[in-house]
Design a protein that fits this description.
It is a single chain. By secondary structure, the protein is α/β, with parallel strands linked by helices. It folds into 2 domains: 16-111, 3-Layer(aba) Sandwich (Rossmann fold); 116-277, 3-Layer(aba) Sandwich (Rossmann fold), CATH 3.40.50.1370. Helix content is 38%, strand content 15%. It is built from 10 helices and 9 strands. It has helices spanning 27-38, 61-71, 84-96, 116-130, 148-160, 179-187, 221-227, 235-238, 260-268, 274-294; strands spanning 16-21, 42-44, 74-79, 104-110, 137-141, 166-170, 191-195, 207-210, 246-248. The strands form 2 sheets. A 5-stranded parallel sheet has the order 7-6-5-8-9, with helices on one face. Strands 2-1-3-4 form a 4-stranded parallel sheet, sandwiched between helices. Helix 1 (27-38) packs across helix 10 (274-294). The model has no long low-confidence stretch (mean pLDDT 95). Bound molecules: N-carbamoyl-L-aspartate (NCD).
Length: 298
């Protein structure tokens, strides 16, 4: 019989994590909560969701995050506004100077900005499957403008320092990787390639990172409608990929992975690693929580 053995330790016993999600989440929220509990720690959150905390009464981010900071040792926050994590960290730091027990802030995603812990779990998954970050063609596909996961992943790959690896960006013209990220990659000497034609790179890709068009970020629904069917991963499309490529997706997925019938076929393909990727999220977040709460280097 297979054992339930994802690990349970007491590394964070007696510590409390506050979950502050101002935006919807399944994987990030649940995996952080599960990670904290598997480390022996506890989790708090506003009983009816953060929207029914004093946020409902009009309290601002700076005060909400400092309230959580008075009760928890670590705060995991997701917010719809780009830069909100920096703002929250700034005010939390001010609180930390006044109280005895400092609190750490971890970003669970800030609007169209960044999703740093997703990048950690994505990197972990790439290494787990490929055993290297070097000499790879890593292809990021979809909404590269609004997708925070691809921003953080591209930056982390560049910062990590890779040799012979090429980042290929495939998107509609209107959803290209932001210019400031492209310049950062250039400064760090990472080789990049941008195209609107997936077929330019699909057959050479070692890592195919598929993403959802971020419908909720579009001001004009007709702009979304015009673009939403541009890149759809299907079993027949995947047949053009290398036999040892891996297909990743941060999830959730909508019709950028076709129909339920397409999902069912893709999910059986050994190249599809998004379920492992999802499980890795919890392990990586356990490591991160242990590091920030206990100084444990893992
Ligand atoms: C992503 C996100 O929230 O940015 N999901 C996640 O955290 N796994 C991707 C998305 O919403 O498309």
């Amino acid at each position: 019989m297979r054992q339930h053995d994802r690990g349970l330790t007491e590394l964070c016993a007696g510590r409390v994590m506050a979950s502050l999600f101002f935006e919807p989440s399944t994987r990030t929220d649940l995996s952080f909560q599960a990670a904290m509990r598997r480390l022996g720690g506890d989790v708090v959150g506003a009983s009816n969701g953060v929207q029914f905390s004093s946020v409902y009464k009009g309290e601002n981010l700076a005060d909400t995050v400092r309230a959580a900071g008075c009760y928890a040792d670590v705060i995991v926050m997701r917010h719809p506004q780009k830069g909100a994590s920096f703002e929250a960290a700034y005010y939390l730091d001010k609180l930390n100077q006044r109280i005895d027990n400092p609190t750490v802030l971890i970003s669970g995603g800030d609007g169209i900005g960044e999703h740093p812990t997703q990048a950690l779990l994505d990197m972990f998954t790439i290494y787990d499957k490929k055993k290297t970050f070097d000499n790879q063609t890593i292809t990021l596909v979809g909404d590269l403008l609004n997708g925070r996961t691809v921003h953080s992943l591209a930056k982390l790959i560049a910062r990590y320092g890779v040799t012979g690896t090429r980042l290929a960006f495939v998107s509609p013209d209107s959803l290209r990787m932001p210019a400031e990220i492209m310049s950062m990659l250039a400064e760090l000497g990472v080789s990049t390639y941008e195209t609107a034609d997936l077929m330019d790179v699909l057959g050479e890709s070692d890592v195919i990172y598929w993403t959802r068009i971020q419908e909720e970020r579009f001001e004009n629904p007709s702009d979304y409608e015009a673009i939403k069917d541009r890149f759809i991963m299907t079993p027949s499309l995947l047949s053009h990929a290398k036999a040892d490529a891996i297909l990743m997706h941060p999830l959730p997925r909508k019709h950028e992975m076709g129909t339920q019938a397409d999902h069912d076929v893709l999910d059986e393909d050994p190249r599809a690693v998004y379920f492992e990727q999802m499980e890795n999220g919890m392990f990586v977040r356990m490591a991160l929580l242990a590091k920030v709460l206990r100084g444990v280097y893992v």
